[in-house]
Each structure stands twice: as C-alpha cells, then as structure tokens.
Write a structure and sequence with these properties.
With about 220 residues, the protein is an all-alpha fold. It contains eight helices and no strands. The longest helix has 26 residues. The radius of gyration is 24 Å and the shape is globular.
Length: about 220
C-alpha cells in the first residue's frame, strides 16, 4: 500500500525521477532522508513479496489442478536445442567489451615495479582483457544460466534418463559459485566479517523466505 501510494504521488506530481530510481537494477546505499531511496526499497520489497505470494498460491491454492508429469524425449531435447541455438546467436567478441576488473593490492604493487631486464630469448605473454581470462565472471554466469534452464526442464518433465548429467551440472554449479567467491577474496584480499555476512546473505536469503512462506525445511533447498 505504501509503495502504491508513494508511486502514485510521484507520478501525479511529475516526479518521474523517483520511479526511475526504483526501476534502476543497480542497488545503492539506503538513505532514509531521501524519498527516492525509500521508495526504491519499498518497491523492491513489494516485487519480492508478490513473487513469494505467487509461489504460495501456485503451491497451495493453484488456479488449475496439478497434473501428472509426462516425459517426452523429443520435446525435451528439442527445447534444449533451441537453447543451444539461442545461445549461439548471442555470441560476441570479448575484445570489444569492457568488463570491470578487480585489482588487488598485490597486482597494483606489481604494476608499479620498475621494468625487469630479460634475456633476448625471453618471450612475454600477450596482455589479455578480463573478458578473455579463463573462467571469467561473464563466462561462469552464462554457464550457470544454461544449467538453471536445464534444471527447470529436468524437474518439469521428470527426465530421469538425464539424472546423472544433472548431478554433474549441479556439482559444476556449486563449484563455480565457490570459485567466484574465492576469486573475489583472492583479488580483493577482503576477508572482513561484513563481506562474509554479505556472501552468506546472498546465498541464503531466498531460501530463508521460502522456508518462512512455504512452510518447508532448509534442507529441502
């Protein structure tokens, strides 16, 4: 109600900046003295609440009766093929893309060192952009997105014949999540308590609210 009231007030007064701030996908620090910041917080809470409400309705009060799952191999692999084609269509060259690069204090110290004289036969490796690094963030995020799509298809169709492949994908997904956090700690050297709490919150906040609203156990997730 508060979100709708503030949104209507901003729209009627012509203050579209407040609404644009709430639509901005990039988060910013909360400022209780700023109407834009408070409205953005309320808007995010409202969207998240509607998602949880939709999940609750579909689980306990579905508008349509639940039907039994039926597996169709042709349809399953056809949809997987469409995903492959759509992914291939979005391929782009990394050289033209600027990716934010996290530099640690160690890397900065190395860059500031005076040049070292090397033998004539020494060949220095060519410099690469962050997007060309092995297992860079864009690459791992895309792989995890592919696997999430396959996870949904597996549960939707109950495709038991790909069970072993799904278990391997889940293992890769968990490993890449750990690898991403390790890379951050290694590059930024930020081992503060606040950083650890932020990481644990990101990994568990959705599980916590699903347990609270759906009446399920933490172990289920």
């Amino acid at each position: 109600f508060a979100t709708a009231s503030l949104g209507t007030r901003s729209w009627l007064s012509g203050n579209n900046r407040t609404i644009r701030a709430a639509m901005n996908p990039r988060a910013s620090t909360l400022d209780l003295k700023s109407l834009e910041s408070v409205f953005a917080l309320l808007y995010s809470f409202s969207v998240f609440g509607l998602i949880l409400f939709f999940a609750y309705i579909c689980e306990y009060h579905p508008p349509f009766p639940h039907s039994s799952k039926s597996y169709d191999r042709d349809q399953f692999f056809f949809l997987a093929g469409i995903l492959l084609l759509a992914s291939a269509y979005t391929v782009s060259k990394n050289e033209k893309k600027e990716t934010p690069f996290l530099k640690s204090k160690t890397n900065l110290a190395i860059e500031q060192r005076p040049p070292i004289e090397r033998p004539a036969y020494f060949v220095e490796a060519a410099e690469t952009s962050p997007a060309n690094e092995v297992l860079n963030r864009d690459q791992t995020e895309e792989w995890k997105g592919w696997m999430q799509f396959i996870f949904l298809m597996y549960h939707y169709y109950h495709a038991e014949e790909v069970y072993n492949s799904i278990r391997i994908m889940i293992t890769c997904y968990v490993w890449m999540t750990g690898f991403g956090n390790f890379s951050f700690f290694y590059l930024k050297a930020d081992y503060s308590f606040v950083r650890v709490i932020q990481m644990l919150w990101r990994l568990n906040f959705l599980v916590f609210f699903l347990c609270f609203t759906q009446g399920t156990t933490y172990l289920l997730y």
